[in-house]
């Protein structure tokens, strides 16, 4: 597996990371525990070293699942990335963000216990807390580094100016943010600033929650699936978006790739400072995604892939309006 370094100060990781969110119920519907564990093991066997989770995925379930998997995996070879700060309730509802230093110390204590580790490799607030200056959040994270509870500091879904303010307090190894053929907003300002500051990108949503995987069909959302509320999957948008997928399919198949492989390969090719996170919940989807690394796309192929799904061509925002309004990266 090709290795990439997260920013100037971060760890070396595999060229693809595994996002584990879908392995817990509450976002994409029910999850299969045994298949999730098998997929985690298969990913590591294939050379994946970066595993991404959040303490609020399944209200701690995701961390406990990874902790269980870690007992049979080479911990010293893996980089575990954890997001914190999003508040949940027993009905799977959302209650905002809390990045106060006292809350952060509480969050990290529980994550260390659930994961069964002594140190978290990358720790990051899931979203910017508008009530807490980023300097205060970074200062508390820096203290966690000094205490040995975490190794590196990351950020998620923040804008260029917040990146600058954060990096002035402590080095940031990577910014986790949505980036795909169908979501290219970071290219205007956020990506150039991250590169200027030596901050890597861990790109999530590279298949836009399955929309551009080549496997999605209209009406496929089930109960408990976030996509039932996502604008891009809405009835008045889905047909237009799936037409873009069919255009991508033609370009991909002409080059011996699946739709998902073409979409992942395009993101990976945008720079050695970018590591796509794949949200595979099953071993077959994992194997397909890993196949994206087995082909070298020349400039002509990359241009054809991009042209099949032009920037700004997607119908609908990437999150519902209320969530979009709280994204610092969208301001």
From TrEMBL:
It comes from the Bacteria. One of its GO terms (cellular component) is cytoplasm. Keywords: Oxidoreductase, Plasmid. InterPro entries: Aldo-Keto_reductase (IPR050791), NAD(P)_OxRdtase_dom_sf (IPR036812), NADP_OxRdtase_dom (IPR023210). Pfam families: Aldo_ket_red. GO terms for molecular function: oxidoreductase activity. This is Aldo/keto reductase.
């Amino acid at each position: 597996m090709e290795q990439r370094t997260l920013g100037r100060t971060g760890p070396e990781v595999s060229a693809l990371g595994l996002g584990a969110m879908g392995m817990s119920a509450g976002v994409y519907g029910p999850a299969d525990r045994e298949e999730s564990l098998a997929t985690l093991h298969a990913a590591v066997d294939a050379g994946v070293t970066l595993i991404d989770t959040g303490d609020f995925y399944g209200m701690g379930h995701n961390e406990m699942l990874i902790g269980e998997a870690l007992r049979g995996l080479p911990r010293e070879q893996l980089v575990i990335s954890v997001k914190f700060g999003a508040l949940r309730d027993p009905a799977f509802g959302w209650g905002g963000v809390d990045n106060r230093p006292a809350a952060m110390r509480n969050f990290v204590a529980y994550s260390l216990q659930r994961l069964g580790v002594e140190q978290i490799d990358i720790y990051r607030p899931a979203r910017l807390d508008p009530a807490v200056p980023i300097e205060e959040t970074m200062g508390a994270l820096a203290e966690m580094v000094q205490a040995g509870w975490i190794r590196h500091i990351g950020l998620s879904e923040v804008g260029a100016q917040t990146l600058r303010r954060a990096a002035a307090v402590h080095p940031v190894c990577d910014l986790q943010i949505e980036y795909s053929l169908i979501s290219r907003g970071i290219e205007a300002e956020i990506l150039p600033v991250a590169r200027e500051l030596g901050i890597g990108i861990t790109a999530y949503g590279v298949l836009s929650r399955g929309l551009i995987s080549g496997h999605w069909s209209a009406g496929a959302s089930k109960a408990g699936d976030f996509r039932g509320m996502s604008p891009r999957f809405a009835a008045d948008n889905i047909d237009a978006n799936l037409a873009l997928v069919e255009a991508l399919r033609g370009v991909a198949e002409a080059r011996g790739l699946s739709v998902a492989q073409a979409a992942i390969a395009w993101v990976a090719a945008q720079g050695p400072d970018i590591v796509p996170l794949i949200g595979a919940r099953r071993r077959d989807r994992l194997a397909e995604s890993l196949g994206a690394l087995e082909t070298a796309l020349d400039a002509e192929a990359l241009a054809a892939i991009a042209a099949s799904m032009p920037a700004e061509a997607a119908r609908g925002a990437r999150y519902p309006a209320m969530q979009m309004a709280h994204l610092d990266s969208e301001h």
